[in-house]
Amino acid sequence: MSGGILAFIIIIIIVVGLMGCAEFEEKESKTSVNYTLVLEKKTNHPILDVGMSPNGEYIAIFSEDHTFVSYPFAEFIFMTRDGKILWNGSSYDIIAVLDNGDCVVINYHNLTILNRTGNVIWTKDIFSEIDIIDIDVSYYTGLFTVADDAGFIKLYSKLYDENCSEIWKWRTYYRPECVSISDDGRYIVASDRVWIYLFDKNGRLLWDKRLEDIFPEKPSWVLDDYVGLSFVPNNMSIVVIWGNYLGVLNVNGTWILPPKSIEIAWKSIPYAKNFAVSKNYIFTFKGNIIYVYDLKSGKMLCKFSTKRESINCIACSLDGNYIVVGSEDMWVYVFRKKTEGVGS
Q1: Alpha helix (H) ranges present in 127-266?
Q2: At residue 144, what are phi and psi to the nearest 5 degrees?
Q3: Cα gap 70→77, rounded to integer Å
Q4: Which pLDDT does position 270 carry in this prediction?
Q5: What pLDDT, on the 0 to 100 scale, is given for residue 226?
Q6: In 3D, which of 51, 272, 294 has the Cα closest to residue 178?
Q7: Is the C-alpha dihedral spanning 245, 251, 253, 257 positive or negative?
Q8: CB within 8 A of 116, min separation 6: which ones?
Q9: Which of 84, 169, 188, 204 shows the smallest number of beta carbons within 10 Å?
């Protein structure tokens, strides 16, 4: 075979190979995850916390200006996903936004529920003697769990119930920092920055694990050993954030997704999380960049920017189709998921 013919054959093989790679990459891109900006709205103060209903229809925004430390200016806004303001008020800490438009907040020492017109429909003074570190609500059962400054994890009976009261409490080894309850109320997970604890609904400790024993190594940064926890919606698995590491545990305490390093900002605002969890995705942020990770593989699926100042908080719908973030420069952004090749 002459050198010219051989060179021609080699060129053909290379071209076919490149076409195959291009076709493969195109198919991959058609199933990739992407988000598009559908709303940006400016408030009057830096946004410290946001909440979104599981169906993505309603959004709560808490903003506050600490320029005047003694008397900070604060505003609470409750609106629809398209930016229509339904009501606004003063300083509330967002706990949960429900599908029917009700919003669960902490108002001073009261756990309070306001309806979609801003009227108080239920309130309970259960925190008058303690400071709340973290709180989480079971959407399906109305049970809620609390981590308090006295060193206890507590489970309370249902929201909307006039006889709402403490069901059980458990003192952790150190002061608890975060808590989460499964959608069906069967499990409660908590952490005190050193240990992770899993309880059943009756207050029985199922297991406790030291973070340093289950993570392969200490994170590259652990400011005050920050830990974040969240049950996956409609699932019995637990998202664990330790510093810049992400992992997913099952209720037996075994890794489903072994810990891996991710991009995430340090959490500095009470109640507000620096990550959000949907059925399939984990959302984090750092600076003005939002990162989307696959819940099963831990792979980063995409990242995108608000193109303005740093993000302070994030929330998402249960299906992950919508994300809301609030920024330091007073802007709130809503993003909608679209799939390339399928349409938005």
Answers
A1: 211-214
A2: -140, 150
A3: 22
A4: 61
A5: 78
A6: 272
A7: negative
A8: 58, 78, 86, 87, 100, 101, 102
A9: 84
The residue type at 154: K
Q: What is the per-residue pLDDT across 204-250, written as a single tens digit (0 to 9) for each? A: 999 999 999 998 877 665 554 578 999 999 888 999 999 889 999 99
- Given a cut of 60, whether residue 90 has pLDDT beyond it is yes
CA distance 75 to 257: 39
How far apart are the C-alpha atoms of 189 and 197, rounded to whole Å? 6
Return the pLDDT at 221. 56
What is d(CA 188, CA 186) in angstroms, rounded to the nearest whole number? 7
Q: Which of 262, 243, 245, 256 is nearest to 301 (CA)?
A: 262
Quickly tell me which residue has 């303005």 as its tokens: 308
Q: What residue type is assigned to position 151 of the chain? A: G
Mean pLDDT for 150-170 is 95
CB 331 within 8 A of CB 306: yes
- Kindly tell me the sign of the dihedral angle through the C-alpha atoms of 148, 264, 213, 209: positive
Q: In what order do the strands lie in the sheet with 227-231?
A: 227-231, 238-242, 245-249, 255-261
Phi, psi of 28 (to 5 degrees): -65, -40
Per the listing, tokens 């799939």 go with 339
Here the tokens at position 176 are 């608890």
Chain-centroid distance, C-alpha 287: 16
Q: Check residue 266 and give its pLDDT.
A: 77
d(C-alpha 303, C-alpha 308), whole Å: 15
Cβ atoms 144, 159 nearer than 8 A: yes
The separation between CA 61 and the C-alpha centre of its own chain, rounded to angstroms, equals 15
pLDDT band of residue 174 (cuts 50, 70, 90) is: very high
